[in-house]
């Protein structure tokens, strides 16, 4: 049999906890020795580190090797073991068909010599792939049961990077990071956007545990997680009290989830340059006013056309309007009426926390129900029968949440309007918008006098929430 002129060495390991690729390094060393013993020339080495061959995840280097085999650039394959090549019988059939079409018959492994060019070799390869697939399935089930048991005991799981706010043991609180998290939570509950908080963290030089900069997806995952509230989650469901100390209270976590739920329902985003975005209505047609710039002047305008649906008959300069309404909000913070009204809103906030807990429980139950059906523990008829009442409760709770309020943006601010007025310009746009939205429901802008060069307060008709 002719010696290969350009063999491919393929190495793979499913899990590399250390990140040092020691497993694939040992595989490569043994494969190189096997090539040398047979006098084969190695054309290239293909390595997929920390990627499973059982879960169906893409393996970039494996695919590149297949492309090179199909293109005639490689004429043999060396692996440490056949299960490094594939653990799926179907994938093995695809590999053998490709080798047959490309004329590749020599596939060697350190642990077994397989000749795909004859029936006996192909039969042996199929047996090895079937055994590997069955063992992977059993191992996956064992790991899932172990992970569930660990979670129910309130113990931490593993991972490449420690969770922010905790030491490497995932149990001990890192006080410096914990204080940063508490500040981030306070800012978020006060109305600041995740984007703005990430900017603050990056400007302060605070890095993630991976050593990178903060992004909203990373921050949001931490804010929503049960971990920082002393709760152990498994597949997104709280299953036990955690064995590690909490960084924030469970009440704060419910408030955080409430903010995210409100954002999801209303589909709102933080303002970028206009503090009154979404709060103004046209006095002619009732449509929402949009932000716009004419030359260097910021304005709020009623836009006509199919995308906006307004009449196009109202426009007002942004700066004096924002100053006027902000002054009105700050003045109301010092009134007795607002303090009394807020007491009622606090009760509504408590009600919201209860509703959120109920919503989370029902969503978790829905998820568990789906898992039971996927595992064939219940029939489709049983799944549909159980799903109906849960979906009805979820819809009812969401309707009640739509009517609930959240007044955390005003924590510590009642009676401080005069003092806050002096600090107003130092607050970022997110914080200003959160305070205004907590007090102002919306404002209708009436038509102005043609040629007027100053703001006419009579044009502004505010409707207060508090």
Automatic annotation (TrEMBL):
It holds the Pfam family Recombinase. Gene3D superfamilies: Putative Large Serine Recombinase, Chain B, Domain 2, Resolvase, N-terminal catalytic domain. InterPro entries: DNA_bind_recomb_sf, DNA_bind_recombinase_dom, Resolv_N, Resolvase-like_N_sf, SSR_resolvase, Zn_ribbon_recom_dom. Residues 163-266 form the Recombinase domain. SUPFAM superfamilies: Resolvase-like (SSF53041). It comes from the Bacteria. Residues 138-164 are annotated as: Disordered. Residues 6-154 form the Resolvase/invertase-type recombinase catalytic domain. One of its GO terms (molecular function) is DNA binding. Residues 139-148 have a biased composition (Basic residues). PROSITE patterns: RECOMBINASE_DNA_BIND, RECOMBINASES_3. Signal peptide: none annotated. This is Site-specific DNA recombinase.
């Amino acid at each position: 049999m002719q010696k290969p002129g350009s063999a491919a060495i393929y190495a793979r390991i499913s899990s590399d906890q250390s990140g040092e690729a020691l497993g694939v390094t040992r595989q490569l060393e043994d494969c190189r020795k096997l090539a040398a013993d047979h006098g084969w020339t190695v054309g290239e080495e293909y390595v997929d580190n920390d990627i499973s061959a059982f879960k169906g995840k893409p393996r970039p280097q494996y695919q590149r090797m297949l492309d090179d085999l199909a293109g005639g650039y490689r004429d043999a394959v060396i692996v440490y073991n056949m299960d490094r090549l594939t653990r799926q019988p179907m994938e093995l059939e695809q590999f053998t068909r490709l080798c047959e079409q490309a004329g590749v018959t020599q596939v060697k492994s350190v642990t077994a010599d397989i000749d795909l060019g004859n029936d006996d070799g192909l039969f042996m390869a199929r047996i090895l792939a079937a055994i590997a697939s069955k063992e992977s399935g059993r191992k996956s089930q064992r790991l899932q049961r172990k992970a569930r048991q660990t979670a129910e005991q309130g113990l931490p799981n593993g991972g490449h990077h420690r969770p922010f706010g905790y030491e490497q043991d995932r149990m001990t609180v890192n006080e410096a990071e914990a204080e940063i998290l508490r500040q981030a939570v306070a800012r978020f509950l006060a109305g600041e956007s995740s984007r703005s908080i990430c900017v603050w963290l990056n400007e302060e030089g605070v890095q993630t545990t991976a050593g990178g900069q903060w992004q909203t997806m990373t921050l949001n995952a931490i804010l929503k997680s049960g971990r920082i509230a002393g709760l152990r989650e498994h597949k997104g469901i709280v299953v036990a009290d955690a064995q590690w100390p909490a960084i924030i209270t469970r009440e704060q976590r419910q408030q955080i989830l409430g903010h995210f739920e409100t954002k999801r329902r209303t589909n709102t985003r933080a303002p970028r340059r206009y503090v009154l975005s979404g709060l103004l209505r046209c006095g002619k047609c009732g449509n929402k006013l949009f932000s716009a710039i004419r030359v260097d002047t910021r304005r709020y305008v009623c836009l006509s056309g199919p995308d906006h649906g307004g009449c196009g008959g109202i426009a007002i300069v942004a700066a004096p309007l924002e100053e006027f309404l902000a002054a009105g909000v700050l003045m109301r913070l010092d009134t007795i009426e607002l303090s009394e009204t807020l007491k009622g809103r606090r009760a509504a906030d408590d009600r919201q926390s209860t509703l959120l807990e109920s919503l989370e429980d029902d969503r978790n139950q829905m998820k568990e129900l789906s898992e039971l059906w996927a595992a064939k523990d219940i029939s489709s008829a049983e799944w549909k029968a159980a799903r109906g009442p849960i979906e009805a409760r979820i819809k009812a709770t969401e309707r009640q949440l739509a009517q609930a309020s959240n007044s955390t943006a005003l924590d510590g601010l009642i009676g401080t309007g005069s003092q806050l007025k002096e600090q107003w310009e130092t607050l970022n746009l997110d914080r200003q918008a959160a305070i205004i939205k907590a007090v102002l429901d919306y404002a209708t802008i009436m038509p102005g006098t043609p040629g007027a060069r100053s703001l006419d307060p009579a044009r502004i008709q505010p409707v207060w929430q508090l």
